[in-house]
Amino acid sequence: xxxxxxxxxxxxxxxxxxxxxxxxxxxxxxxxxxxxxxxxxxxxxxxxxxxxxxxxxxxxxxxxxxxxxxxxxxxxxxxxxxxxxxxxxxxxxxxxxxxxxxxxxxxxxxxxxxxxxxxxxxxxxxxxxxxxxxxxxxxxxxxxxxxxxxxxxxxxxxxxxxxxxxxxxxxxxxxxxxxxxxxxxxxxxxxxxxxxxxxxxxxxxxxxxxxxxxxxxxxxxxxxxxxxxxxxxxxxxxxxxxxxxxxxxxxxxxxxxxxxxxxxxxxxxxxxxxxxxxxxxxxxxxxxxxxxxxxxxxxxxxxxxxxxxxxxxxxxxxxxxxxxxxxxxxxxxxxxxxxxxxxxxxxxxxxxxxxxxxxxxxxxxxxxxxxxxxxxxxxxxxxxxxxxxxxxxxxxxxxxxxxxxxxxxxxxxxxxxxxxxxxxxxxxxxxxxxxxxxxxxxxxxxxxxxxxxxxxxxxxxxxxxxxxxxxxxxxxxxxxxxxxxxxxxxxxxxxxxxxxxxxxxxxxxxxxxxxxxxxxxxxxxxxxxxxxxxxxxxxxxxxxxxxxxxxxxxxxxxxxxxxxxxxxxxxxxxxxxxxxxxxxxxxxxxxxxxxxxxxxxxxxxxxxxxxxxxx
Length: 615
Ligand code: F6R
Fold this sequence. Notes:
The strands form five sheets. The protein has an eight-stranded antiparallel sheet with strand order 3-2-4-1-10-9-11-15. The protein has a seven-stranded antiparallel sheet with strand order 5-6-7-8-12-13-14. The chain has a five-stranded parallel sheet with strand order 19-18-20-21-22, sandwiched between helices. The chain contains 20 helices and 27 strands. The mean pLDDT is about 95. Helix 15 (about 435-455) runs parallel beside helix 20 (about 580-595) and helix 16 packs across helix 20 (about 580-595). By secondary structure, it is an alpha/beta fold. The protein folds into three domains: about 5-250, Glutamine Phosphoribosylpyrophosphate, subunit 1, domain 1, CATH 3.60.20.10; about 250-455, 3-Layer(aba) Sandwich (Rossmann fold), CATH 3.40.50; about 455-605, 3-Layer(aba) Sandwich (Rossmann fold). Bound molecules: fructose -6-phosphate. Fructose -6-phosphate binds next to helix 10 and helix 17. Fructose -6-phosphate binds near residues 309, 359, 362 and 491.
């Protein structure tokens, strides 16, 4: 959570930092700030609110001049979102200025010690404590900024990506990382610092991703010196060439990133299986998997750990793995898994699913599983992310940057990868017939076209949204493979429209939730052609009998549900195993339109952040 940006070079830092912060707002957007060195002093502006609010304030309060600067967009951890708690933070002397993404857990004791030494604090943040600790060490030990940062970080417990500079030495920025991401863009006589590469992608394709417990001293017009925080060991920085381009991180004519990302699904699902799925030849080849197939095939069980939407993808995978590959699967909320002393052995394979690859709970679950000897496989979208590096092996989803906070294309591409893994294992284990295997490969290749077709109902779904936008509660029901889709549909609605919604397995309705149903309750039922079709039709009858309003997701050509439901959203026919990839599309569009009609901030819903790097 929180986005950080820094610049040192020959350009005006202000526009670089402001545009960079806008691209990082998905990481947090309750306050924003910037500090520039204008040649004689630090110009600092910060405010509660978004980057546009910061721009307004900066226009009134600072000169915006300078070729060295740092900026921050915040998701509050310590201290409510207000002007004072916004970053950057000065040290007491006003010489040092810092931005920070993460949490300093022992800040209270450090703060007490600093107060005893005469320091005063303006904000409630842990970050202001850190910058003053750096200042105190710099003064006490008579060391340079880089060393002071290193010594200070050795005294704190927690997670951080920080950037700090000293107005008396305006030719360097010191950065450090532990548990929060930090990339350094290497340009021509200029350097960029950011939480991900999006703020500097139009300036350079070359980036250094710091590893945990590394820090760097970035020297204007010179170089980047990387070293370990725990000792003085120098590390040779690895400069990576990025595949990202500017179009991928812009809205491309759509009103919102979320809508763009929903519409990107046909092409990104193709990107996910491109070169990995060769249906005609009956081949599935996943680079990260091949070598480890025996681990999966011989595993006692697969444990999937994830959070939120990625957890829902894990639930879909449970059905697919058990059904096709006959391997027992458990799906765990990463946050619960790590705190309940789980039984894990060397015979377990753990799959961690994460779009961002930075989710703190998932990361902690991975570390625990590794400690207990399990083999850990990652499914991440963000290339080079912490989880992709912490796992033993893995597969990228290749969905491209997902900027809308509500996850859409990450979900369908995760399911695509998981389906390919399950099919591959099923083939190796002999738990699938050759005919079925070939059929699934061909059908998986057709999913992008089916998603394209499902998207064609957009206008009809917008009309349905008009009817239900003022409802205060929604129920989402699905069975089998589509139970997790019901959960995901409900989550999408809650997070962007703030309407209360619950997902249930359709058959569970009669064990409690049915009491909620009256003429005011819209019930979204996934009622596609499947083994459960007849049962779901009965559930719909039960809802109708209690005057609930039915919005059904149906298979093209359906007749029975269409007669019963108040509104229908059609999806193309595909084998039941693959249906989550299409049934989720109308649910994404429904929540999108409702949120737009309610004037909600679709891409940046309140209280949320794209990458949850705190526990
Ligand atoms: C929901 C959503 C969140 C994330 C969750 C895990 O739309 O975006 O629920 O799915 O925070 O994030 P990742 O996948 O990055 O680990």
